[in-house]
Design a protein that fits this description.
The chain is of the alpha+beta class. It has eight helices and 22 strands. It has helices at residues 42-50, 92-102, 109-119, 135-147, 165-179, 193-199, 217-222, 227-232, and strands at residues 4-13, 16-26, 31-35, 57-62, 65-66, 77-80, 153-157, 185-190, 202-207, 210-215, 239-243, 246-248, 251-256, 259-265, 276-280, 286-288, 296-306, 309-316, 321-326, 336-340, 347-350, 356-357. Strand 9 and strand 10 (210-215) form a beta hairpin. The chain is elongated, with a radius of gyration of 24 Å. 37% of the residues are buried.
């Protein structure tokens, strides 16, 4: 199979830049999730690779050969769209086979359709039209159509967005195994960070048309490159406070809401940091009724059950609000509490640029 490579790719529509200097390589058999907020340029990127748009600058290579300017049907690319894009006048069977038949495939088309349908558990709806299919069945039909030709590159444009929560969870478990049955280079677009972390070997974080960080899922969660990346990963989102750290006897301290808090050893950080953001994940906060020198006084404003956690909205004495994620069994006996976190749980970001500073300890994704 073939390696997919983007080399300094750029694209603009009029004065609006949708992609700027994008460089990324996807190896055969690798799944790379392109993750970012709505409007960040994810779908434009896929459509440039597929041949619906041509880049204004840079190059796109498959197997070391440029595909810029080549017609879509000659690029060796399979694509599953977010809105399924099934032919309404065809059965599911005909939709799945349409790409093969368009390329003049031989008599084994029916056998291939049966095989891929069995793999995706949709054999029983092959003779149904799209209007008779559930969203989950439509999604699997579109995926079967993309997979059946054994493409060198597979592009998936948020394929689970329009399916129900139960199927989305099941497909997060099934898709990695399914996609790795072949050796295609897979680019998987999603707006769901949990989906990206569950499915991908690496995640490419795209913000405002630029790749901000490309790394393994656990690396991005533990060591986000910027404040913007840190905010995108985690539910509830990371807590932030503006601080000016100081180094004393090899230890870094900062003032958070009037409390002097240890952040990290100064050996891991530059000595003169200036204004910074300090970030702490909600699940790294420890709540107690016992005061100590490094505990931040807070008041519990609200408690909200969320997924597997109970989320506390905390308000510090200066009005700063943070969130804490506790196990559902945890109890808070009083509204007035004290908040602590381990120094290695803190992340520092430059206040002006938002770029992460220093070398925080590695942590595992929640």
């Amino acid at each position: 199979m073939a390696r997919l490579e983007l080399s300094s790719v750029g694209k603009a529509f009029g004065a609006v830049s949708c992609a700027a200097d994008l460089s990324l390589a996807v190896e055969p058999g690798e799944i790379v999730a392109v993750f970012g907020p709505s409007g960040s340029g994810k779908t434009v990127l896929l459509r440039m690779i597929a041949g619906m748009f041509e880049p204004d600058e840079g190059d796109i290579l498959v197997g070391g050969h440029s595909i810029v300017g080549a017609p879509p049907e000659r690029r060796g690319i399979g694509m599953a769209f977010q809105n399924f894009a099934l032919f309404p006048h065809m059965t599911a069977r005909a939709n799945i086979a349409s790409g093969l038949r368009a390329r003049g495939a031989g008599a084994d088309v029916s056998a291939k359709v049966q095989s891929i349908s069995h793999l995706l558990k949709i054999e029983h709806v092959l003779d149904h039209s799209p209007r008779e299919l559930s969203n989950g069945q439509k999604q699997r039909t579109a995926l079967a159509r993309a997979l059946i030709g054994n493409p060198e590159v597979l592009l998936l444009d948020d394929p689970l967005r329009n399916v129900d929560a139960k199927l989305r969870y099941e497909m997060r478990l099934e898709l990695p195994t399914l996609l790795r049955r072949g050796s295609a280079s897979v680019l998987y677009v999603t707006q769901d960070y949990r989906e990206a972390m569950a499915i991908a070997d690496r995640i490419a974080v795209l913000i405002e048309g630029r790749l901000v960080q490309v790394a393994r899922p656990e690396e991005i969660y533990a060591r986000p490159a910027t404040v913007a990346v840190a905010r995108l990963f985690g539910d509830p989102s990371i807590n932030l406070a503006e601080v000016v750290p100081v180094a004393e006897r090899g230890v870094l301290f900062a003032d958070i809401s009037g409390t002097r808090v240890r952040l990290d050893t100064a050996d891991h950080q530059p000595m003169d940091l200036g204004a910074c953001w300090v970030g702490v994940r909600p699940d790294d906060l420890v709540i107690s009724q016992v005061a100590s020198g490094d505990a931040i006084p807070a008041r519990v404003v609200a408690v909200t059950p969320m997924h597997e956690n109970a989320v506390l909205l905390l308000r510090f004495t200066d009005g700063t609000e943070w969130l804490a994620a506790l196990p559902p069994s945890a109890t808070v006996a009083d509204d007035d509490v004290f908040v602590r976190f381990a120094p290695e749980a803190s992340l520092l970001f430059d206040r002006a640029t938002g770029v992460r500073i220093g070398l925080p300890h590695r942590r595992q994704a929640a």
